[in-house]
Each structure stands twice: as C-alpha cells, then as structure tokens.
Amino acid sequence: MNSQQDIRTLPSVCPLDCPDTCSLNVQVQGDTLVAVKGSAANPFTDSVICNKVARYYPEFVHGKARLTHPLKRVGPRGAGQFERIGWEEALDMVHAGFTRAIKSHGPESVLPFNYAGPHGELAGGSMDRRFFYQMGASLLDRGPLCGGVRGGAYTSVFGNAPGMPPVQVVHSDLVLVWGNNVTVSNLHLAPLLKKMRAKGGKLVVIDPKRIKIAEQCDQHLQIKPGTDVVLAMGLAAELERRAALDHEFITEWVSGFAPYMAQARLYGLTEVIEICGISEGEFHALADLMIAAKTMACAFGNGIERGRSGGSGLRAAMVLPALLGHHGRLGAGVLAKSGVATPKTAARLQGEQLIKPGTRKFNIVDIAEKLQDDSLDVPIKAAMIYNHNPVATHPDQTNLMRALMREDLFIAGCDVVMTDSMAYCDVILPAASHFEFDDIYGAYGQNYLQRARPVIPCVGESLPNTEIFRRLAARFGYDDDLFKASDTQLMDEAIDASHPQLEGMRPSEIPLDRAIEMMAVDGEPLIMCKTVTPATPSGRIELFSQDLEDRYGYGVPRYEAVPQELPLVLISPSSAKRTNATFGSNPASLGPEELEMHPRDAKARGLSNGDLVLVWNARAEVELQLKVTEATRPGVLYSPKGTWRASSRTGVTVNALIPADIRTDIEAGACYHETFVEVKPA
User: Over the stretch 108-120, which tens digit does the pLDDT of each residue have?
Assistant: First the structure.
C-alpha cells in the first residue's frame, strides 16, 4: 500500500467555522488521509483552499493529539492524566455523572457546553440537541460568543432574508471591506475583489490594521477600534448634507428614516475626526467615492461586533447602501447572510418540540460564572464539552479554568483531538473527524449546499457525533424513533427537499461532486429589494428597530466608549495558522505567538523586534514574541486568537487578558476587543 497507484482522490467538504465552506479533493492511501486539496465542485471556492487546511489536516486526523479510544481521568483535574477504557464503561460514566446531578438537583443541573466545531448540519447540531432537549438540560445561547451580534444587527435591518452572495461583487463599482480580514477569514472574496478592480471598480478597506488586502486598495481608513458606528453615522449625516441620499428608494423601501437621521446628525465632522482618529481629508475622500458610485457593496467580517458598540457599528454600516439606494440590482447591497437562502429545517433536525417549557437558558459568555454560582436555584453539577474548546476561545480564560477545576462538577468531553479543555474532563469520548462520516453542509458566507461522505474509516474507536448521542440516548432509555434516526434520515430532516433548487432530490442524494446554488424562489439571483424582500415586521429595510429598542434600548445605533485603564488596546484577530482554535496543537502553533506593535510604542518601552515580551493587565500576563510594524496604529496591538496554553510560558493565552464582564450593546456579546493592556520585557 505504499505505491503512488494506491492513492485515491475522493470528494469532501471543509466543515470548519469559516464563511467559505470549501469543496475539497482528499487524497487517501489505504485508511490514511495523506493530502487535502481544493475542488472545483463548489464554483465559489473553485479549487482554492487556505494553507492551514492543506498543511495541517492530515496531522490533525492522524497525529499524536488524535483521540482514538475512550479515556477516564486518573490524576488531578486539569493535569491531563488519563487511562484507556472501553465504550461501555465510558457511556456508563456519563450516565452515572448526569444521573447523579439530575437526582440531586433536577435535569437543569446538566449543561451542554458546545459551540461551533464542525459546521456540518449533523455533526454541528442534530442528535445531540435531541438528547439534551429530551433530558430537560439547561439551554445555551451560543451566539453571543461570536456571530450573534453580527447576526442580530443584520436581522434588525433586513430580517431573516438572504443578503448579497459574494460572487456578485464582480458587478460592483465600489466595495467597502469593513472589519473583514479577507485573505485570512474570507479567502475567496479576494479574487472577486481583484476582478472588480480590474474592471475599474474601487476598493475601500476600513480596519485599524493595514491588512494584506489594504495593500491593494484605493483607500484605507485606519480607524480606532470600536468607532465604526461613529464613522458610519457621520457618513450618513455627510451624505445628507451633500443631498446625496436616494429619497425615492428610501420612500419605497426604508422605514425609521427620521429617528435614524436625528441620531446620525449628532456625529458631525469634528466628532468623526476626533473619535475615529482619521483626517478630514480621508473622511471626505470616502464620501466622494460613495457619492460617485453607481453600484456599491459592503462586506463585513466579525471584527466590528467585538467591541462595546459593535451592534451599533454593524447596523449603521449596513444601512449605508439603503440610504444611497444601492439595492435592487446585481452588485449592490450587503454581503452577509446569503446562506439564509439554504432551506434549513433546524427545528425539525434538532427536535425543538422536545424542549420543556420554561427551561432556563444561559448566555455562553456567562458559563464560567454560572459554573461557580452555588446560589443558583439549580446549580450546574454536570456538563458535557463537545464541538468546542472553551479554554482556548472564551474571554477571561483564567476564570473559566478555575470553574472547570471544581471537583464537585462532573465533566464529560467529546472531541477529535486532546485539547486544553479535554484535560479537565472526567471521561472523554473520541469523536470522528468529518472525513469519517456522512454530513450535509450549508454555509453562512455563501449560498451553496453540499454533501460529503466518509473518505476513510473511523480512526481507532472514534465515532461520529450522531452515533455517540444515539448510544447515550439508548443508555438513558430514550427509545423514541427520533433517537434512532440514521444519518441518511437526519440529512433529509436537515433540509427542505421541496425547495426548487433541489429539483426533486432528497438532500441525502445530493451528488458528491457538485454544490447546489441556492437562488431566489423563482430561480433568479438573490437581489435584495428585487428578487428578495426584507423579512422585517414592516417588510422594509428598518433603520429603527422596535425589537432592539424594547430589549436593549437601542432602537437606533449609538456610540458608547469603554473607559480605558491601560494605554494599549489588544486586538485578537483570526490566525493564518488556525481556524479559531482548530489546529492549535500543530507544531506551527506551539511557539510563542506574535504580538504586533507600532514602532512608536515599542520605542517608548525600550522594546525591539523579536523580543520576548509580557503582555499584562490585572487579569493575567502572557508571553508573546514582538513584531514591530507600522501596519498597526499607535496604541493598538495585534495577536492572533486560538492559541493553546502550551504556546506561552505563563500557561495562559491572550484570552486570559480579555474581559468577560463587558458586553456588546445588543445581544450581550463578548467584547474581545475591549482589552486594555501594557507590555514589558519578558
């Protein structure tokens, strides 16, 4: 089995938490994954994949960190000392731990602690949800950790209607890339922007850092972190002063114009210059480009949502195309939520009818506190960590680790590899990688639906998530047919087969070598205010949100600065070596992570390029390696997210510096970018 002739190339799909959801060609030799390449099955991703997937997936599947057998803890919690056990004993341990908590405190004492590991519909949330809903376990609001604020902002403006697919930017003549590090987090948008510019279009990048795409743009506004709402509202007021608003479009398609503009007029030129940290010339140059544009699009990443005024910033930026009438034609609008066009039937797949009325729901950002709160009416006494590495991803990392150290808390874990979080578990169930099971894949950043089947057998004794939770359901005596559904049945329950683009196919029959483009109901391209209408209460693009006014007091966007107790702001963006925390165990991520600092800040502290430094605040200190660069603003530091504890001599990562008590204006999201620090030599 060592010759080149034994290598087979098989189709697959990337399941990672990324908007692009690439189609893959996987090279397999025997039962071993030997290479991962891009595939042309999805026209959007078109054979191109990121370096991290190509380089690190084989080691992720077959490397030293891979979990291949059930394990039980035999040493102190968190020490990572385990011994191999069989599946029956492992399932018995989970049953005993959960049952002990339920008998003493009731089913809400059990917590499913999961987020967005695999993005396949089955692995991401199907049989597991049915299992915990049937149990009556506490519910978890996962969105506030990431994505929920952006989603809430978009929905407040457009409702749950699909936005502009990224492929349409080739028809734009101006694109604002706003808080979106395209080449790291949205790779396949970059060549489309290049085509747009080759046709004479203009590209503007709005980001505190000179990201790679900014090196080839027509204008880069290097605003202060968290001030996006001021810039966007200031632009709205400036466009009104210049009589550039499209009042005909506003009359037909927009509601809430008057209260919105009353707020926007509070942000004049003086306020924008002072708060955002840009020049008068830069501001007017952007306004000039927007007024000259015939077809403008805006592409947003998740960066904006990670500040206190993140929801307001996103909403204010998202309404700019509507104020100028840039909807209703190809290339005009907001690049967001085009995946909503995929007819997912999550309620059916996840068995939402099983949810017990009145079951409590926790914000995922609060979990460290909730695990330590004995004053709760029902304390949390058992948890299951799966599809998630919270120690590597949550704010206030040290407090979360403290919570997981509680010996009176039973913790079951389930993962593909041994992570920082699995080290705290009492029992670990080995999960199959997505290369080892069937699944179906929608996307949140594009509008193609894809299916994949196993390309290798399950490694060792690992099992797919669906089978693990089937076995747990059986162990708990849940014998309804809902808990026996096969993966084929689950795929068919995940997607509405009556959608015209499926052409009568069952979802489980979608060809493996193609991706199905989700269009408007009549088969036309997705175009807001033409083939797609806003799914808001008014049926219009809503500049004032009654829902956000009622829930949070933010009917219209506004800026609220967070007091800064230390001189430097730390931003933790996506990494070119990891997708969030996935691949964090790869040798490429094991050394000290990089810290980018402006030369002025380095000189003031007597620091030089390549120095090992300690970044510190009242929460923790983290060892990083300094990179002195003018790509970042003075006063703003960058260090990529998703590192594991072994990367720093201090045993914690930048997440230990991030506050968990500051929340976004809407949706109570985590404020990763309201992190204030100082730096000293290590």
Answer: 999 999 998 899 9
